[in-house]
Automatic annotation (TrEMBL):
<keyword id="KW-0479">Metal-binding</keyword>
<dbReference type="GO" id="GO:0046872">
    <property type="term" value="F:metal ion binding"/>
</dbReference>
<keyword id="KW-0378">Hydrolase</keyword>
<dbReference type="InterPro" id="IPR045090">
    <property type="entry name" value="Pept_M3A_M3B"/>
</dbReference>
<dbReference type="Pfam" id="PF01432">
    <property type="entry name" value="Peptidase_M3"/>
</dbReference>
<feature type="domain" description="Peptidase M3A/M3B catalytic">
    <location>
        <begin position="170"/>
        <end position="560"/>
    </location>
</feature>
<keyword id="KW-0862">Zinc</keyword>
<keyword id="KW-0482">Metalloprotease</keyword>
<dbReference type="InterPro" id="IPR001567">
    <property type="entry name" value="Pept_M3A_M3B_dom"/>
</dbReference>
<comment type="similarity">
    <text>Belongs to the peptidase M3 family.</text>
</comment>
<keyword id="KW-0645">Protease</keyword>
<dbReference type="GO" id="GO:0006518">
    <property type="term" value="P:peptide metabolic process"/>
</dbReference>
<dbReference type="GO" id="GO:0006508">
    <property type="term" value="P:proteolysis"/>
</dbReference>
<protein>
    <submittedName>
        <fullName>Oligoendopeptidase F</fullName>
        <ecNumber>3.4.24.-</ecNumber>
    </submittedName>
</protein>
<dbReference type="GO" id="GO:0004222">
    <property type="term" value="F:metalloendopeptidase activity"/>
</dbReference>
Length: 569
């Protein structure tokens, strides 16, 4: 084990005594038994917030440790025991404390708590006792997905690789090598598909029951309230799907077919299309700016130093404190995310790097989330006021992908930097069709599909949507059952209805970058000011603070596509 991994393991250790409900029950009960007047509420809220932070951090550390060791039954057991033994009584106690707060006569929340006070009221109305234990089942089902995908292996050219290591080969300029890698990944995915189908059917039934228990017509309506979506409607999302089909899909097709033409390809096959990193039109090897996770950290540290001294210091703190686990290895979940440990206001980034330029972009993305945690945690003492509504939460991460573009001279030479920037801009265009497809699939699944929907219907719907949003990829001669399984994606299993936010925030991030090109210092200050507002402000206010509009209509998308097209030209 390296010194870096030792620091990570140390950071994630949880005493056995902290992993049981008894470690928290007496203090929650004391809060419930406290006499409460309007004047007492601020101090009482502070006590409740601190206790929630302690409990939440324990769960976050156990969950993250389990994700780093999907092949460790003991790590999985500790995390699942916490979910089953602590989360249900904590949820019940949270409802009781919420009802106590809402019953305080003559209480008027302070301006910085008014929004969350309303959210408390709405969440209390959605609460059902029957859903407490059902949510445990829901988490256990999602964990099955993590274990299955975290233990996937890919056999390629006689080697056994992790999923991220095999995906790296999709960027090869050698078409035959790309094709071999694509088929190796496909074999691995299709072997896991029956298990994931079973998990998905269980999740659908559980989610339908959560909605019924809460007297909602369907899971989309339930999730809409659970996610506190008040600033837009399902109809607005449908309009977004239509706008992407009309404005972004043609531009994506133009970009992809143009590259294929320059490479002399007769058509764009699945192994010729990676939405995160389009092929180089000159047939050059993909950019590989580093080899190890430690090298990536050093490159990023210099980039942040060029952008802002305080951002660099925050990243340095993460490096020194064991808050980064970047290397890809067997038994580690294949996704990337930023976790949060609220007691000491510490974000934690998990990734699976393999040396690509895409890894550099993803690190800037996840550390952007970390900056959000740092700044909102510094400015907002109450736990509920940290971070932000999910419609804003991807702006800190996606904007950081753009704000670092002018601070990478130490990573790339001039020609390489131009390629990296071009990939970044192309990535926005090619991401929008994928985001619209992901969102449209879930609207259908949870609001339109029959209650007894089966896997064949899921596959068929995905095929229909993929033909709509990715018509420029030619699947001729390939079993449609392979294409139909692309819905087996992390967010579909783990965070339902959390995907259109990426598109909203990508559009906003482009807007922030557009402003930064004329006044970088002002754009960065607005960025940091918006992060400090945390969850104490609504979605439109947060966007305004960052210097952009909360819009994702067709005219707005059309304008940004024209801007990106001009930049790419």
């Amino acid at each position: 084990m390296t010194a870096s991994s030792d620091r990570v393991e140390s950071k994630l250790q949880v005493p056995e005594s902290a992993a049981s409900w008894e470690a928290y029950r007496p203090r929650y009960e004391a809060l419930l038994d406290t006499g409460l007047t309007a004047a007492d509420v601020p101090a009482w809220l502070s006590r409740w917030s601190a206790l929630n932070a302690e409990l939440g951090e324990t769960g976050a550390k156990l969950s993250t440790h389990a994700d780093l060791h999907t092949d460790d039954e003991a790590a999985q057991g500790r995390s699942q025991a916490f979910v089953a033994g602590v989360i249900p009584p904590a949820a019940r106690m949270g409802q009781a404390l919420t009802e106590k707060l809402l019953a305080v006569p003559d209480y008027t929340p302070a301006p910085d708590f008014a929004l969350n006070y309303r959210r408390f009221r709405d969440a209390a109305a959605l609460f059902r006792e029957a859903n407490v234990d059902l949510e445990v089942t829901h988490e256990q089902q999602k964990n099955r997905h993590s274990v299955i995908t975290g233990n996937q292996k890919v056999t390629l050219n006689g080697l056994t690789l992790t999923i991220p290591q095999a995906r790296q080969q999709l960027d090869s300029p050698d078409r035959a090598a790309r094709k071999d890698a694509w088929w190796a990944l496909t074999v691995s995915n299709m072997e896991a598909a029956p298990q994931l189908d079973a998990v998905m059917l269980d999740l659908i039934r559980t989610r339908q029951q959560l909605a019924r228990n809460a007297d909602e017509a369907n899971y989309r309506d339930f999730r809409w309230k659970q996610l506190d979506r008040l600033d837009y409607t399902p109809a607005d999302c449908q309009a977004f799907h239509d706008a992407v089909r009309e404005e972004a899909v043609p531009l994506a097709g133009e970009l992809v077919r143009g590259i294929a033409l320059e490479l002399g390809l007769d058509r764009v096959r699945p192994w010729d299309y990676n939405r995160n990193n389009l092929l180089d039109p000159s047939g050059r090897e993909s950019l590989k700016p580093f080899t190890t996770g430690d090298q990536l950290q050093t490159l990023a540290q210099t980039a942040f130093a060029g952008l802002d001294a305080d951002l660099a210091a925050r990243f340095g703190q993460m490096r020194a404190s064991g808050l980064l686990d970047l290397e890809s290895r067997p038994g580690k979940m294949t996704h990337a995310y930023c976790q949060y440990f609220p007691v000491n206001n510490e974000p934690f980034v998990l990734m699976n790097v393999v040396g690509s330029a895409e890894d550099l972009r993803v690190l800037f993305h996840e550390v952007g989330h970390a900056f959000h945690g740092f700044y909102s945690g510094d400015a907002q003492p109450l736990l509920w006021n940290r971070w932000s509504p999910i419609e804003f939460v991807e702006i800190p991460s996606m904007a950081m992908e753009f704000l670092t573009l002018d601070h990478l001279d130490h990573v790339f030479n001039g020609e390489e930097l131009a390629r990296y920037r071009r990939n970044q801009l192309q990535g926005v265009v090619t991401f929008l069709p994928w985001a619209a497809q992901m969102d449209a699939f879930q609207h259908w699944l949870y609001a339109e599909a029959p209650e007894d929907v089966d896997i064949a219907a899921l596959d068929a719907k995905w095929l229909e949507l993929d033909r709509t949003f990715h018509p420029f990829v030619d699947w001729e001669g390939i079993d449609e059952g392979i294409r139909a399984k692309s819905w087996q994606y992390y967010h579909i299993f783990q965070v339902p209805f959390y995907y259109i936010e990426y598109a909203m925030c990508y559009l906003a991030a482009v807007g922030i970058w557009r402003e930064a090109r004329t006044d970088p210092a002002a754009a960065l200050e607005r960025y940091k000011a918006a992060l400090r507002l945390g969850n104490a402000a609504g979605v439109p206010e947060l966007y305004r603070a960052a210097g952009v509009e909360f819009r994702f209509d067709r005219d707005y998308i059309k304008g940004l596509m024209e801007f990106l097209k001009a930049q790419l030209a």
